[in-house]
């Protein structure tokens, strides 16, 4: 291992030495042109740093700049770094005459003003522009100057070579950490010390940067407060080709409130605001290749909704659990939902196929190619988001989840099978047990769940019940047994027949009469009109049925939750996995009947059959034929059959803890 490391260091060392000699031999304009072309080449092959750069730019500018503008900035970042490296190589050639030719140095009088106090001066910079060129400024004008740098412990020879470039014009390099005592001594000698304020790492201070807390270095602020050292913020901006402008700001007026930690935070925040403004005005000059917000205490969760209520509730529950997992690490969350709307159904199907074949070409700046498939408002929304976690349920939004998670370097969470895409493309997949073909095929990123994630909790049920009772005040009889019926609608290979519903209502009506119970009924937007019409005629005026909600005629958002909360026994159609899961999670005794199959031979192989029978075998529900529901109600009412509540939260929460 040591030999390999030594060989790699030798290759890099001599590569830098040779390329440095070439850069110094070429005319400056041509050398910089070569640096830009090297930047283009690295942009093409260095996927890791390109992805990080593009993700950081998205977090900073999404909604302010178009995807095309962000993509161009990312390319220019690499080109600028190529030029900066060329200028580092050429430092030994720079004398005062050349320096004055290429550098417009503004603010020298501010350094003089800072040094008049006799406590030295901290030139505070960031990883911005050609900062190695900026480090020459003090030495060129006769100021004793030392710069604090981070050592490269793995490549000591390369570190020594780079420091030779840095010190060739009189600057002195101090290694971060080990050289702190020398740095303090230099300030006491009234010298100028160069330090950077960004990239604070784990030990930095969290302050706002582009609207989100980022870790920034506190060393300069602490030193300035402790030793009363003036700080001058300085920045170098490339004007064109080899020409730069250096701006040294007036000594910063440090605030002192008597609270050291507050002083550090408030002073640092003001300096970072200045840094942000330069970065906003010249985004291609900043080094976006590191994890800018890695140590942030803030996170954004994005839910991509396909418009199906059941799917949205699964995503919302997962987002709630993710918020809980992040809160355990003192990370504050903000969750937003974007409704994904395709221009039409054919566009939705076409995008799924297109992404399967060409998705690899869309990442890191190709999101504009999805615009023809989405509505204008939907496209605007997905290009304005800044997520750290993306959650989606269903195959029609899985492709967008994958694309956006790559562009933003966000963690992707997919619920249900992701359609044509491989489950391995996502950071976490919550896979229903009925979709698992073989346990041996499961990868580490898959968590198997028995039902669908849902919002059902005691608090949720109480809130929904209160809302329903407020809307329908005649339902406040607390003493009678209550039976709830939740009817879904047609699915791909399933349909609910009018004959089934007639038999169901007859069975329930007889059971309700025998138990002196009342029945609450709700259908769904997928319920066929003929069934809605039958129920309206049959039960609307029946005193045993005091509540009938037809969502295709009236919008009652709390219908399902309220009925789950109010009723003692639930009867649910098995076409909706989400609705069955909600009923089973409510803790109420739940009976499920399966609709009819268009292809009867596919009954036992269908996911709905596997799902219902799986929960039935584990005791979470009672599976029943429609004609036997009356007897099932009596058996449950007489405590002959018991069901237990379904709770998927613990395994999902544990998976999310591992994810973050």
| Rg value | 33 Å
Describe the main β-sheet briefly.
7 strands, mixed
Q: What is the residue-mean pLDDT, rounded to a whole number?
A: 91
Estimate what percentage of residues fall within beta strands.
Answer: 15-25%
Strand order of the largest sheet: 1-9-8-2-5-3-4
Number of domain modules: 4
Uncertain segments: none
Instruction: Specify the overall morphology.
Output: elongated
Task: Give helix % range.
Answer: 40-55%
Number of helices: 24
Specify the structural class: alpha/beta
Distance between the termini: 31 Å
Number of strands: 23
In terms of quaternary structure, the protein is single chain
Describe the structure.
By secondary structure, this protein is of the alpha/beta class. The protein folds into four domains: 16-92, no CATH class; 96-285, no CATH class; 298-449, Rossmann fold (3-Layer(aba) Sandwich), CATH 3.40.50; 458-637, Rossmann fold, CATH 3.40.50. The protein has 24 helices and 23 strands. A seven-stranded mixed sheet has the order 1-9-8-2-5-3-4, sandwiched between helices. Strands 11-10-12-13-14-15 form a six-stranded parallel sheet, with helices on both faces. α3 (47-61) crosses α4 and α17 crosses α20 (559-566). It starts with a helix and ends with a helix.
